[in-house]
Amino acid sequence: MSKPLTSTVIGLGAMGWGAAVSLLRAGLPTRGVDIRPDVLARFDAEGGKAFASPADAVADADVVFVYVVNAAQAEAVLFGDNGAVTTARPGTIFANCVTVAPSAAIAIARRLEAAGMVALDTPVSGGAVRAAAGEITIMASGPSAAFDAIAPAIEAISARVFRLGEEVGTAARVKMINQLLAGVHMATAAEAITLAARLGIDLKTMHEVISASAGNSWMFENRGIHIVDGDYATHSAVDIFVKDLGIVRDEAAAFGFPTVITEAALSLFQEASAAGMGREDDAMLAKMLADKVGMPAPGRAPEKDKAS
Q1: Under 8 Å CB-to-CB from 87, ≥6 apart: which residues?
Q2: Minimal CA–CA distance to 179: which of 139, 230, 211, 143?
Q3: Is 175 tagged catalytic?
Q4: What integer pLDDT is reported at residue 103 of this predicted model?
Q5: Could you say which of 85, 100, 112, 229 is the most buried, measured as most Cβ atoms within 10 Å of its Cβ?
Q6: Domains in the chain, CATH or no CATH each
Q7: Mind listing the pLDDT tens digit for each residue in 87-96?
């Protein structure tokens, strides 16, 4: 029998954690890297091997999945002190799952290739629940032979894989368009639900109606229900869309393309971040809009909102 594919997952946040435990569930030896001791302890309890340093976790890995927050963090865990590239074997496959600007995805891939590694562009979508179930969507570009070589790992973490060609950066461009829509839809959902609350419409009924109608979006149906239920616990932070919509704006500007709707949504996320909500749930846009007209956040009674 051939040796099972060995994977390393750098970054055990919501999405990276889901990937790592899905790999373990598939019977693939998996190393997890994170800076948080409690997360490493949890991963060790799941049967994985936990490491605080990327350099310590990749020496015999066949594939390294990178699940950090942004391009700067990706560069640090790959090329910085104790970065993965310092100890990875030549020819190790690196799958960059971070949502970054296409230009950054290409630059990171070129640095990996210059170091003798194989680079794949693999941004993901689907949220923490799908990640934990091994059912994310992967937008993938890069060498076909590398994807074929890590097929068991890809199958373990995903429900759908869109192979978008051999050119690194193509997948990042597609993910950028996805984030444009997701961010705009989230901002619109917050505005629509808050307006409905202002008009005295029953929010649960409204959500059910819209979810079955032409105005629906995945963000409205999946994330909007948190607003309807008054659930403002952090599932996906405001600052994620500050980053992602900023990428859309900047990359589009480089091509001379206007992004009027993107910038309107981005301004709401930026306003929420500036008000101290950056690490809070993106549903907090609804609370911010409600505050503007002196009403409780949707889904919350006045006394509950005042006590929060």
Answers
A1: 55, 56, 58, 59
A2: 139
A3: yes
A4: 94
A5: 100
A6: 7-168 (3.40.50.720), 173-307 (1.10.1040.10)
A7: 999 999 999 9
